[in-house]
Amino acid sequence: MGSLSPPEDLPLLQYPTARRDESVVDDYHGVKISDPYRWLEDPDADKVKDFVQKQASLTESLFRTCDTREKLRQQITRLFDHPRFDAPFKRGNKYFYFHNTGLQAQNVLYVQDSLDGKAEVLLDPNGLSEDGTVALSTSAISEDAKYLAYGLSSSGSDWVTVKVMRVEDKTVEPDTLSWVKFSGISWSHDNKGFFYSRYPAPKEGEQIDAGTETNANLYHELYYHFLGADQSQDVLCWKDPENPKYLFAAEVMDDGKYVLLYIEEGCDPVNKLYYCDLSSLNNGLEGFRERNEMLPFTKLVDNFEASYRAVANDDTLFTFLTNKEAPKYKLVRVDLKEPTVWTVVLQESEKDVLEAAYAVNENQILVSYLSDVKYVLQVRDLETASLVHHLPIDIGSVDGITGRRKDSEVFIEFTSFLTPGIIYQCNLKTEVPEMKIFQEIVVPGFDRSEFQVNQVFVASKDGTKIPMFIVSKNNILLDGSNPCLLYGYGGFNISLTPSFSVSRIVLSRHLGAVFCIANIRGGGEYGEEWHKAGSLRKKQNCFDDFISAAEFLVSAGYTQPKKLCIEGGSNGGLLVAACINQRPDLCGCALAHVGVMDMLRFHKFTIGHAWTSDYGCSEKEEEFHWLIKYSPLHNVRRPWEQMHDKTCQYPSTMLLTADHDDRVVPLHSLKLLTTMQYILCTSLENSPQTNPIVGRIDCKAGHGAGRPTQKLIDEAADRYGFMAKMLAVSWID
Predict the structure, then answer these.
(1) Is 220 a catalytic site residue?
(2) Which residue of the set 661, 662, 698, 714 is catalytic?
(3) Catalytic, out of 220, 593, 603, 703
């Protein structure tokens, strides 16, 4: 096993000394676990801020030696500077869409009276902050298109402030809703107000710095807000103090008569489902405001055994997309008058995952399947689910579909590794649906014919076939000389499907890099069985799959370990960190973004308790024993001792986090960073660990959503400049 050494011109880094408090020891079911960097869990402490500053200075000094960093920034900026559009959607008699001219920090919401009418700016978040860090996180137009309710997030935080604007004259109303988190906005069809979800306001004297706090998020509540009223007058529609971890979401159906209540506890695709007939309420919702009562929801599904998502309803007859006894999903129907009688409308497919279903054109449904991680679109009859048409799309992803049941015209967003974006306008009134290009996103200077995309199926450790996409320049030599970037996620039923990335195209073109996505277990690519095969006691399968994908890329001649970089974010950050602990010889560089790194304590912070559905929880003895085996923080080892090879060391590693990440709080990355630096670099003289172990800690940024364009560009230039330096890759003009 050869050494994966850093470039020779790299200065030897002097890591900041971090205090170890050996007195912090926890007892997990009789097993003593020390946590010497517990003090890093307090983001407001001066000593933590000082630690962060020293780490940032160290990393910046390293960045200055990365000679491709500025070239990457320039090229990524140049390619990023192209107009981007989201699919238009109709409300009332108006159309709305999001657009970015290219380098605007945030997308802008436009309104127009017709598709070819003059577009006006309705809401431009770029004017709300000088540095572009205030983002539009959610928005909803009232049925009559007179009002826009919108949620603003600052510095990437999950906390949202909801405001209301009059569409006609762009006047911002005084309505202001605070302490909103994990919430959609759903208007009632009388246009008097909307449903939203929030947490209780902090008690007097309880300080919460939105975005940097670590307090657990508990006691979610569902409210209805009346236009023009103070938030204190909102109707509390539902809460459940007996179950503080529950999350609530409301959806008003297309008929405006029924509102559905979705109840979730963790991140598994399972939910309870209640409904309320708004038309049956005496004095409407106003009566509940006066009486201070919750809405009389009727329980339709009152257990967490499956997922149910409404597709359509005709009065009391509801159609749902569900995974009940159908891990690849099916469509079912129930009449609320006979709530125990459920019938299957569209059977589960043998191989493909029924990913989504939309009611359109009065009596049709548009369904999308995932077939070996590629999208298939079909038009079916709503009543019988019989196939009416296949819609022709290329190999890639359907990013979004806009169009409601009353609309015969729908818009479909499509993207792929080599397609920046196409919005199709589909007319379902014609005998054969017309699919015409409504808008094509063009990246100046990008020529898709320079590149190729292949999909391979790699055998994992237990023989399971793992799909992987490989994107490269045409006619590359498979002689092991190519730098390679391998990306993965593998969790929470999330599927990684083809999408366009400016920065990855720049890597292929100017660094000669091969880019790969491994669709490992834990994701949703093959339905719920695939998800479950990479969670809880089977989480190790994710790491085995990813390692097998890396080994395939080496054995097939795409690259070699010292030219391979592995990357992932959030649950994918955990993936990368676990893999370098288990196989430090696997790659030359590792980029782990906003990762869950302390598997024994993650459930104690913000929304971490919801992830126990995928990971388990250290408070349960059996689950503690799963977690301690792979928890990145608790498995850092000196590979030269483990593998009896004095030249073996960890790859060059960058842990990326952000000060306002209130999803996976920064303490995860900070504790792992200093643990790695201590064990591998500073606790012994003449350590073989010469590859850098550094952190990139972004300011005024969060878990990823709402990040301004310039921050996206800067981070890509930093991490891929680091990668190029560590893999000794030269720039190609």
Answers:
(1) no
(2) 661
(3) 703
